[in-house]
S-(Hydroxymethyl)glutathione dehydrogenase / alcohol dehydrogenase
Amino acid sequence: MSTTVKAAVFSSPGTPPEIRDVVLPDPGPGRVRVRIAAAGVCHSDLSLSDGTLPQKWPAVLGHEGTGSVEAVGEGVTSVSPGQHVILNWAPACRACWYCRNGEPHLCEHALDRASVPYARLADGTPVHPGLGCGAFAEATVVGADALVPLPDGVDPVTAAVLGCAVLTGWGAVNNSARVRPGQSAVVLGLGGVGLSVLQAARLAGADPVVAVDVSPAKEELARSLGATEFLLADEHLTGAVRALTGGRGADHAFEVVGSARVVRSAWNAARRGGTVTVVGVGAADDPVSFSALELFHQARTLRGCVYGSADPARDIPLIAESVRSGALRPAAVVTDEIALADLPAAFERMRRGEGGRSLVRFGA
């Protein structure tokens, strides 16, 4: 038997979603139906919705979610009905070259399911799951390998942001940049992921931790999460960062916006020999350029960071230890709790650079 749920259905790039009935099939072999408790609204969802990132239509977006298992298909033993789980939008195949060489975040097959319909509309039209998850709905059906059991002692609602914002931010600091105690860090962009980078840098012992954003309204939250300094993203930024770091620039600069202009700002804020980690997802037609001389002379490392270079099965339990101790506060990155129908307003806040994470809460 199938299951009909309410979902935010996006029909084409640049158009707002409609709340419609979506028919989910019973989970087949290796598949699991999850009743969604909450779903974070990520900038990647905005990029999928407006065509910046490729997406097949119609689609139910949303990939940062948590919920409880309702039903499992044949052969599923990793989770069971009633168990709380976190969605993993990039499940590793564990068999491709990248997986076999310790880079599961670059798995060749992680997004295969995003291009395959997972449900249908009432009229039979196939529906695609955004990043393979389809979390902007009352329930979804995913592969068992796309689920991580919720660690004990972690709130099952705000745990939604562990699946992308917190995991990406924590991983950027610990897996990609490998920040060491006493190193300086500057974080450009204080959305949900940027606020998570900020917290992770503090936990890693970075000092100073410099938070940067276009909105002065974010200073109080940034300082409460560990920023020792707050700077506005303006023409004085490079000099201000150097003034806070002995005239050199930061050991680590994190770009968490997805913009060539901000990548360049992060590059300029780093010291000679420093590391620039690009966490934000930018557009293909937004090039960033460097001269051959400065690449040689500055001797900086510029690296991309996909999904925090993380392995969710390994890293989420580690993050949960900091959550349980109170050292890491995932709930603090959530600045707006919303209903499913409020997604367009959440997207507009992201476009304006306002707030942290919006969280769609179901069954409240």
About this structure: Residues 168-306 form a domain with the Rossmann fold fold (CATH 3.40.50.720). The mean pLDDT is 96. The longest helix spans residues 312-325. Residues 104 and 266 are 27 Å apart (CA to CA).
